[in-house]
Amino acid sequence: MSGGHGHRLFRPGTSYLHRLPAHTKLVAALTFVLVVVATPRQAYWAFVLYAALQALAAQVAGLGLRHVLRQTVVEVPFVLFAVLLPFLVGGDTVSVGGVELSRAGLSDAWNILAKATLGVWTSVILAGTTSPQAVVSGLQRLRLPRLVVEMLAFMVRYLDVVAHDLQHMRIARASRGFDARGPRHWRVLAQSAGALFIRSYERGERVHLAMLSRGYTGSLPLGGSAAATPRQWAAAAALPAAAAVVAVMAWTSVA
Amino acid sequence: MSDPTPTLQVREVAFAYPDGTQVLFGVDLTLARGERVALLGPNGAGKTTLVLHLNGILTAGHGDVTVAGLRVLPDNLREIRRRVGIVFQDPDDQLFMPSVREDVAFGPRNLGLAGDELDARVHEALDAVGMAEHIDRPPHHLSFGQRRRVSVATVLAMRPEVLVLDEPSSNLDPASRRELADILTGLDVTTLMVTHDLPYALELCPRAVLLDEGVVVADRPTGLLLSDVELMRSHRLELPYGFVPDGLSARSR
Predict the structure, then answer these.
(1) B82 vs A: CB within 8 A
(2) Is residue B79 within 8 angstroms of chain A, CB to CB?
(3) What tens digit of pLDDT does each residue of A202-223 get?
(4) How far is B25 from chain A (nearest CA, A)?
């Protein structure tokens, strides 16, 4: 009943990566992903090197391989899409076990799979070493527009509360013999979603009332994360810098 | 009372919502400095509507509210909201910042406090409710009773003239309810407590006001009010089964 602990992505710890200021990690993660995306798909070895770099980072952060892999499941819908490509794209084909697959489709599928997976791993490592609150204050430090930061802060604060509401509604439905099995039950699920929306909306109104009662005049005093030393910036830059070297090598080998 | 200016004065307040539903029909209520008063009444009596008038969230169609000599008007809402601290029923509505520290600092910061002064204020408020050790935790990692106590701290940090509590004992387990009572009796602040928890009202508030259908129907010592079976029944109030108010007969005779 009391405080939810729904942030299973975040692994509290004291590793060097945990202690780095959030905004340096955010910049590093974003740069790393951009470098990965900019790498030519034919340079297969480069992606292996990227994965090795991430394994190193996960090691430093004390995140188990199993944790990282388990969180990779969010990628599944994209994987399904990628798997379809070799069947759907036309052009040259190649025969794999008697099935004709499109060469371009295979290449596209690899491109999506490799880059998406590396992106997900980057996020998992970032989220594993940075609490949601720290991510918000890091974004604030990076001068993300105030309104967006405030919205994110509220989302972090109320995600658990809304998840609890949802859970309670699910239990209440199940307790009265409801079992969602097919399209016949979609109506009930849709109504639940509507009810949840209205509940959350009303909660928003009550929160606003509580804010007004304490003198709110339009700006939320959120503290940004602490300043980073040059040394910390350098440490955070190590991963994307190494990746950039790999990317340059990849481009020269392809050209 | 030595101070002649009442801390809270509600005069002939009448209010109708924009859709025409009239909820308050001329409410009079005066709280002297340091008093603890229970506001009782059935659901729909207008208790919450009245509370929202005290800090100017709602504006009376008729009548006025004065807090320690200052009338509630659009021009002085900031000072009014400092003087009137409302603790809402659901701590999840009250606590919206990422950490306990930031949440307690929210009010005083809006009043312009900063730096050491702000820090001192936050610690003072958290000490008053015994939650100082949880200062850096996110609110959603606290137990329900702890969140309720932090909610009280968020308004104490503004050093209010009047503390208004909406159902302070709801959903608390007996020990948390007891702890909160100890905290509230230890505070030196005028308190208006909206509640259905009649034993709690008797324990904490020497005086009780019964509101029903938008008017004050009774205003007397809590023991006397609770022992008036006829009055209680006609306004949908009942003592819990088996509850015989301690010393009630002595006080009412």
Answers:
(1) yes
(2) no
(3) 999 999 999 999 988 877 877 6
(4) 23
β-pair partners for B208: B38, B220
CA B46 vs. chain centroid, Å, equals 14
* Beta strands B8-16; B162-166: pairing state: unpaired
Query: Both tokens of residue B189?
Result: 């602040």
Tokens of A224: 């940004």
Residue in the block written with tokens 């940004």: A224
Kindly report the backbone phi and psi dihedral angles of residue B215, in degrees, each rounded to the nearest multiple of 5, phi listed first. -135, 155
- Are the Cβ atoms of A157 and B97 closer than 8 angstroms? yes
Going by pLDDT thresholds of 50, 70 and 90, the confidence category of residue B62 is very high
Token readout for B190 is: 């005028």
Determine the pLDDT at residue B59: 92
Which homologous superfamily does the CATH classification assign to the domain defined by B8-98+160-252? P-loop containing nucleotide triphosphate hydrolases (3.40.50.300)
Packing angle of the helix pair A44-61, A230-254 (nearest 10 deg): 160
pLDDT band (50, 70, 90) for residue B251: very low
Mutate to test the interface with B, among A213, A216, A219, A225 (most CBs of B within 10 A): A213
Q: What is the pLDDT of residues A4-38, one digit of tens each?
A: 344 578 888 899 999 999 999 999 999 999 999 99
**What DSSP element (H or E) covers A246?**
helix A230-254
Q: Any idea which residue has 């005086």 for tokens?
A: B207
Cβ-contact A136, A142 below 8 angstroms? no
Count other Cβ atoms within 10 Å, centred on residue B34: 12
List the single residue in A154, A206, A222 with the smallest CB-CB distance to B88: A206
Sequence-distant (≥ 6) Cβ neighbours of residue A102 within 8 angstroms: A85, A86, A87, A88, A89, A90, A91, A92, A93, A94
User: Rounded to whole angstroms, how far apart are CA atoms B85 and B79?
Assistant: 11
Give the CA distances from residue A193 to residues A168, A197, A198, B127, in Å, rounded to whole numbers and listed in that order: 13, 6, 9, 41
Model confidence at A191, in pLDDT bands (50, 70, 90)? confident
